[in-house]
Amino acid sequence: MKQTGLLTITLLLLFSNVQQACRSRQQASSQPADSTTAASSSETASTPVITGRLAELGLTPDSHWRGINLGDDFTKVKATEKGESFESDADHSGYTIELANLESADILYYQTSKKVSAINIDLFLNSRQSVTALQQELSTYFSSRYGSSKPTAGGIGWTGQKGESVLLKDVSKGKDFGLTVKIAPAEGATTASLK
Fold this sequence. Notes:
Blueprint: H1 2-29, H2 35-45, H3 52-57, H4 75-80, E1 84-88, E2 92-98, E3 104-112, E4 115-125, H5 128-146, E5 150-152, E6 155-159, E7 164-170, E8 177-185
Antiparallel strand pairs: 1-2, 2-3, 3-4, 4-8, 5-6, 6-7, 7-8
Helix pairs in contact: 1-2, 1-5
């Protein structure tokens, strides 16, 4: 069962990467080949596409999650996050957002030395199809931001150029469907290096 799931995820990621490569080639071949357009087409290829579902989650092309980056002052979380607060203490703040079709997400922002040090997201979904579709959209989004993904024991992972680590995992069990996303400094990186 696990092998089938891993094979499915691997095939979906491969399909996504092939589609993205084809789009990049089509964009590059449709533009004149001078140095100015060559630079702008490579920048365009690395800008993530924000689909309707990703916009509903509040994702942006230039932040780790919902306008918040690792290394930001923790006060920015309260000023930026529009979800409903469900818990807060000295180490973290939690918010929930309601999504379409009675789905939801819980987001925990952790802090160390008054800086955002990690972000954990639990996505509560309604069906296997919803999990598969959102996992594909998030995989494409993260791959365009951070490059190629790598399968990990716990899911699919990416490592950004600034040292951020992103893990996407299907946590569905029985009739409970969901995904988790964990964003934190990669091993050996510090929050300060991510700014």
